[in-house]
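Now for a typical sample entry:
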Amino acid sequence: MRTSIATVSLSGSLTEKLTAAARAGFDGVEIFENDLLASPLPAEEIRARCADLGLRIDLYQPMRDIEAVPEEVFDANLRRARHKFELMRRLGADTVLVCSSVSPDAVDDDALAAGQLARLAGLAQEFGIRVAYEALAWGRHVNTYDHAWRIVEAAGHPALGTCLDSFHILSRGSDPRGIAGIPGDRIFFLQLADAPLPAMDVLQWSRHHRCFPGQGGFDVAGLLRHVLDAGYRGPLSLEVFNDVHRQADAGATAVDAHRSLLLLQEAVGAAELPPPVVPTGIAFAELLTADAEPVTALLAALGFARTARHRGKPVDLWERGTARILVNTGARDRRDGTRLAAIGLTSPDPAGAARRAEALHAPVLPRRRAPEDAPLDAVAAPDGTELFLLATGSSGASRLPDWRSDFADLPDVPEPAGTTRIDHLALTQPWHRYDAATLFHRGVLGLDARESIDLADPYGLRRSRAVANADGSVRIALTVGAAPADETVHAAHIALATDDVVAAARALRAAGGRLLPVPDNYYDDLAARFALSEGELATYRELGILYDRDAGGAFRHCYTETVGRVFFELVQRDPGHQGYGAANAPVRLAAQHTRRLLR
């Protein structure tokens, strides 16, 4: 029989995956949509590459959240599908995978689902394409293969069949004997996978994936309250089996463990710690470098002006609006490149924040300070970034904050055009400190944490979690990389807020700055997902601007090229949008890997 493999099963760029599949002896591939969107090659070149390698494109996947939705939603889905079918014709793919819907818009109505899938199949047939409908094990209303087949059978369209996936069938405990009742010509595709039985059984979960209280999703504090109410007065003991901890430094892990118990006791009222002092803003980001020219050239292109110099250290202050970047040229080793070394956080009570940090095993760092220097306290985050705790200033007044008095103003500095502030910072964590970083920013700094999400990288998956204060004036994205040997993985970035990302991007390019190129395939997909005008889409394509939208509004953003281990992002967010562009992260990460390979 012929063999095929989904590109999502392999690491690397799409071209690397295709080459690997061919060399292994596969006859065909399933093209996973994220791989295509992140590829710089147009569909016709991908088709030709597959032909040269002797590979047939057996399936394009996935198409999600199509069926059993209100008519206006389905009309938009058909518009999206038409774009996909046009793309598939260019690719030479004749079968598309449609997953059972997980959308909250979907209703439990088999007749509606069958009717809409029949209409989708009719459209697909115009392009010479077949639709293979698959039941996801976690589908909202359709989650078993026999239910999916009943809908396909009711639809009665020759271009509509079913896709059988061994994981989705076996993970739910469905009886595969029922497959014998499906005509063989209506099984359009078969996907095979194995997994432990059951997937993530309690023992495996326990032995490999436990973490410290406050790092996971269990209500450990609620359980502890019940235990204490019952009269328990013995020790609180951690029993944590975790593969990462088994490979990490025992000293740092023990500190993190004890911190978690202190915070747990605080949560149940069994211990009193200095109260959290939530930071109110980002005063500055400090870059450490042995070669200032590349990063200062980029800052100048971004519209920053060098406004002051530290009175006793090789540190320059660059400003635009309320965004402040310190460039510290005191790095000894050029091989380290430019990196984000410190962050200044404004605080209504720096001394109180330092006391809480000390109580939670994050002592104030020793600093070499001249007599005339401002008395600034800093603590170290788990990734080694120094966090300076800075006085806010009297009621947000215009007087200079204490740290600014360490700098002497430079003469004849032009006023930077436009207003800019730091929207958020993104910090890449060491592979073994991601959970510790979440606990630190929540427990020590008092920031709220979002759920952890997975971001697709060409060489694996990244975990990412955002922490922020209530009004969003402090936003930090914590990410753990997929490939530790790649310097792109270790890059931090500084996101600058702008009211007009198009104007900001054009100004950057006019000043000699370089933006990260984004593949044309991304914009073809963008046209399918959002009803953007041709002019707007063309502008985004020209400048490499990425776009996302949710119920809170739109998010437009683009990226500079990386300097050392730092790059910048220009962000225009609607006031209600709380995201960080996660939907576009796979495309950005792939584009950065591509630029690195072209150096």
